[in-house]
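Structure first, sequence second, as always.
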């Protein structure tokens, strides 16, 4: 068995895919998740895919005493991937304190435990939301941050600042923030994928639920953007590509290949696709048509964003391989599976 990695939020969407890739690469995985936005059944599904069941602890990372007990028991953890966080942009506007408490307290608690239990390696789940609506496209890691558009986005900016300052003060640390663009799609096994609770906020789950008959029709938010077809542009990335980038990053940290205490990378494909192009790709790859109506812009949405991926490609030696049609067809296979 390889080295032991703690994955917080490991039963969640990106977390579960990363657990699969870590186990495939020979790591031993232990998960902490409070199951606030995921299901314990995911552990069975992970086991079906990889033949090994990760260790699992259910509790909230805001519980510092419980977390400290965990690290006393699991004394051989070599690195942490920290996914666990609240992530609904709209909800964060309504419940800012919940977002600041959950997302910032959990990171502070983890970093306190890293210090007391001598763990030096951490990968942090960040987001392209830290850039706001940037002045330049594509967005590189050197593109300056704009003020966050939501409390959720602000927690990601603040957490990155915490990582930078802590790395500065502790030379033994190797900390990496991975800034995801728009993660979509599902594992090719059809056994894990995104499981939104209630009405989905994100585009692709809304498309698949509409086609599955769970929603009446998709609303395309905004048709008057300054983009080729008037709908907003994002850099969609397959969740399996994203998961693989985490394994590469963990290896890099454990092998002490990261020279700086703190580094950050954009994880996208580098391609910007509009909402209409996403719908077209879905229809083309699945052969099913999507019922949609045109609607006003969604408050808080930005017009266009896509990544410059050169730094991640060159330094991590990682490149997204899966295209938009594979993202759509895998999302649809997963949706069908959740219905049966
Ligand atoms: C945002 C954040 C991202 C965060 C994610 C979590 C930015 C740039 N991105 O993604 O970092 O991880 O929220 O929720 O801040 N759309 C529709 N109809 C729908 C749903 C969405 O037309 O029913 C459109 C949106 O207006 C947008 C695109 O689809 O143009 C993608 O939306 P969504 O999937 O919600 O992701 P972002 O808002 O880009």
């Amino acid at each position: 068995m390889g080295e032991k990695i703690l994955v917080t939020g490991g039963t969640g969407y990106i977390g579960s895919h990363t657990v699969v890739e870590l186990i495939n690469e020979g790591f031993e995985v232990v998960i902490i998740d409070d199951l606030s936005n995921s299901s314990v059944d995911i552990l069975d599904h992970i086991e079906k895919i990889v033949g090994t069941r990760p260790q699992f602890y259910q509790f909230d990372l805001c519980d510092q005493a419980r977390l400290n007990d965990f690290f006393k028991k699991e004394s051989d953890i070599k690195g942490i991937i920290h996914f666990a966080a609240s992530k609904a942009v709209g909800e964060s506007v309504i419940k800012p304190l919940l977002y600041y408490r959950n997302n910032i307290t959990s990171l502070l608690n983890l970093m306190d435990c890293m210090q007391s239990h001598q763990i030096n390696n951490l990968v942090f789940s960040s987001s392209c939301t830290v850039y706001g609506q940037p002045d330049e496209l594509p967005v590189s890691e050197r593109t300056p941050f704009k003020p966050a558009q939501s409390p959720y986005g602000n927690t990601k900016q603040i957490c990155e600042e915490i990582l930078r300052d802590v790395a500065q003060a502790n030379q033994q640390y190797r900390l990496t923030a991975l800034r995801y663009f728009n993660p979509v799609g599902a594992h090719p096994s059809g056994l894990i994928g995104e499981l939104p609770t209630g009405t989905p906020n994100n585009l692709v789950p809304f498309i698949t639920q509409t086609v599955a008959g769970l929603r009446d029709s998709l609303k395309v938010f905004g048709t008057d953007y300054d983009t080729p077809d008037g709908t907003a542009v994002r850099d969609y990335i397959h969740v399996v590509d994203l998961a693989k980038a985490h394994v590469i990053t963990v290896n890099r940290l454990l092998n002490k290949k990261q020279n700086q205490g703190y580094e950050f990378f954009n994880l996208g494909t580098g391609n910007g696709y509009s909402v209409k192009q996403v719908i077209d790709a879905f229809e083309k790859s699945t052969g099913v048509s999507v019922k949609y109506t045109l609607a006003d812009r969604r408050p808080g949405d930005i017009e266009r964003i896509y990544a410059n991926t050169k730094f991640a490609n060159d330094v991590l030696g990682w490149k997204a391989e899966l295209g938009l049609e594979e993202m759509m067809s895998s999302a649809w296979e997963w949706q069908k599976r959740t219905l049966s």
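Margin note: The first helix runs from residue 13 to 24.
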